[in-house]
Amino acid sequence: MTKSILLVEDNPDDEALTLRALRKNNIINDIVVARDGAEALDYVFCTGKYASRDVNELPILILLDLKLPKVDGLEVLYRLRENVKTKVLPVVVLTSSSEEQDIMKSYLFGANSYVRKPVEFEQFIKAVGMLGIYWLLLNESPTH
Amino acid sequence: MRCRLKRQTYRLNKTTDQYRSLFYSMNLGVVYQNHHGEIISANPAAEKILGVRLETLIGRASEDGTWNTIHEDGTPFPGELHPAMVSIRTGKPVRDVIMGIYNPVDNQYHWILTSAIPEFLPGQTTPYQVYVTFIDITELKAAQKRAKDSEARLNSLVANMAEGVALHDVIFENGIPVNYRIVDINPAFEKIIHLEKENILNKSATEVFNVEKAPYLTEYSQVALTGKPCQFETYFPPMDKYFQISVAPLTNHGFATLFFDITQNKKAHEELRASEERYRRLVDATPTAILVIQNGEYVYSNPAGVTLFGYDSAEELLQLRLSATIHPDSLPHILQKLEIAENEAANLPMEIKLLRKDGCVLYTESRYVPILFKSKPAGLLISNDITDRKRVEDALQSRVLALTQPIDSENSALRIEDLFDIENLQEIQDAFASATGVASIITDIHGKPVTKPSNFCALCQIIRKTPLGLKNCMASDRVMGTPSEKPIIQHCLSGGLWDSGTSIMVGERHIANWLIGQILDTSEPQSNEIMLAYGEVIGADLDAYKLALSKVPRMPREQFEKISQYLHIIAKQLSLLAIQNIQQARHISEQIKAEAKIQALNATLEQRVQERTLQLEMANKELESFSYSVSHDLRAPLRSMDGFSQALWEDYSDRLDEQAKNYIQRIRMGSQRMASLVDDILKLSRISRSEMHREICDLSVISQQVMTELRSMDSNRMVEFKLPDHLEVYADPHLIQIMLTNLLNNAWKFTSRHESAHIELGTFIQNGETIYFIQDDGAGFDMAYADKIFNAFQRLHSSSDFEGTGIGLAMVHRIVHRHGGQIWAEGYPEKGATFYFSLGDHSARREQ
Q: What pTM value is reported for the model?
């Protein structure tokens, strides 16, 4: 069984486009979508509605938006990095902003990568494709 | 015989008993030692002194080495030198040897005075025993030492004293003291009298000081004879010094003197007295009022103070409280000032409105200084009378006020007193009257005199003393003051006297009249009768009236007319002067107002800067959060538009006709263009938001890099780039990079339609400022739009000609402005464009 990818995205349009882009790039991993930061944390740490999930089943990659309801992206990052189990889990920030402060803070909070969603969909597909190749194939993540 | 023997035996026994008793009870230590030196007997005193019990003493010898004995200097006292041993050896008594012997009981040496006396058996020449006595002198010796130490200390004290000490004996002749002898002196005394001790000891005072009568003999002998010490201060002429001499009696008509040199004290005191005297004279003589206030009362005043307040004597003034001499208007203010001065020990200048004894108001410029007066806190009030100055200032102020009101205003009370110094007018008037022999006066427009009349004839004075006469006179004066081009010459209402008047004007405004006259025309014989009749009409004292009439000046009519003409000319000049005075006053008043305005402006400037800074900070924050929101939220819908259009195209292309596909393309183009506009807005705002960090940047190096990049993207272009070697500026390198990239991109872009192109980076100095420029020979632009070229999203070329969003020059413009510089452009269609810019005052600073 392939490991899942956790997409944290509150905008349904962006969610649909990202899923489409992933499919276009023939990425076969399960995609779990969390629609806010709290849900993302519930999924990762098996709490709330994910309480029955196996704690040892961690996603292979998290695609994280920054502007999120309830718990925002930076806080999600902080909570992931503070926990020893998820300290080294690959997290790619995928967001609209290219504001210097967003980029800087994301890296300071322990993001592995920062990718700005391009407006042009072809570019978006390309970007997601490259992310998939890099994080799912090329990159060696530490085993748990 | 038996009886005798018995008596003798009894006597002997009795004597022996007596001696035994003495032996046991006396304080003198006694031991008997046999001819070997061994103790055979000792009394209790000996036991005590030696600290050894009798049973232990018996049998011990002086030489047995168990005695711990020392000499006075602390060296050991050998046993063979003990008086007992010496006496045994020599057969002679040894007396009064001092020896220290260790007493084991009280653990210290006792000093003993020891004597040894040999005793012989009859017929023998060597003693069979020795009788040793010793007395404990430890206490005595300690007392002696104390006395000796004490004496040494005293001697040392006397020798080292700064005061001169001398011992003397009084010399008597026939029981009368006539002189005294110098017995001893200390080194300080030697110094005082500049004589050496050895030369004067035991000599008489007259001899030593070389005088007929011994100095202070009376005082000294008094002490020596009565035994009562005394002390006196004196000037000692031989030394030119002041001394305080203490005399103490000694035994046998001797006495000691102690000399304190008080010359310094005396001189300092004298100087202080002289200094005080100088200050007192200064304070007495100064025209400035100097007063001392203690507990709100005057406790001292110099003569000027008394005069200032108008009192007859200081005593009169000193009975008053400060508050009684200050005008109630300024009292609270002054009391407050005085309190501040006292609390802060400051010297505060203040203007005080005072009340004189006669009730007149007085203005002073004063200072108040906290001082001590008779060892208690007080204040020194130093005042100068500025009443005159104050009056002039007040008058001036009211004059300025009057002068600066609009002339044509009906309400304005423009008075001649405000325009001229009345004393000056008086002088002119007096001179005129005396030169022409006519009477003269200046009145206001209601006929009320402004100046004092000059040359007024006695007749008019008599007339004016009657009510009707005065009324007529004033009416006449008013008529003659009617403004006119010519002087008005007419009979006054008396009917006989000739008067003339001319008006003084300020522009159109009539402010005063100058009147002359009170003469009789020599060519009018009937005027005398008319005047006499008038005297009766107004009810004047006729005798005086007639006498006065006979003395009225008379002159021919023509002469009076001429005089009137002169008067008119002078009055016209005065009118002119009045206008000038007004203009001057207004000018000054406007200047003062302008200065006050500037001062007020400056005062608020700081505050306004702070407010503006706060506003700017808020605006910046708002811009920041706006940009943040744009950055996050504005692009997402565009992404949806583009993304789903694309999805539509991909998934449903078989069901879409060409038209539909075209529309989809248009949606995608629109959303992409919108996205790049949003990005541009963010770029532009980032330039305004970013912090500036100036450092030295080389425009040439940066430009060269930009050009290299441009060439690499389009290697077919023939573009010549001209630039100086190093063009250094002190600016923000990041912003400069953006600026040059945009300018050079533009130059590159707008020359792309030309086969070959020239681009130049250069610099020149204009009005002391360094101007940089980037010039190209490309498409150029119409100068009519030169002012729009830097507006955001303003484009002068169509997108089909040259692509772009129109944000580049707007960014350049902001960058230049952030550096405090200027930017402008010159261009002609198809002749190229030049962009000139400066980078503010710091741009050329290279030393940083």
A: 0.40
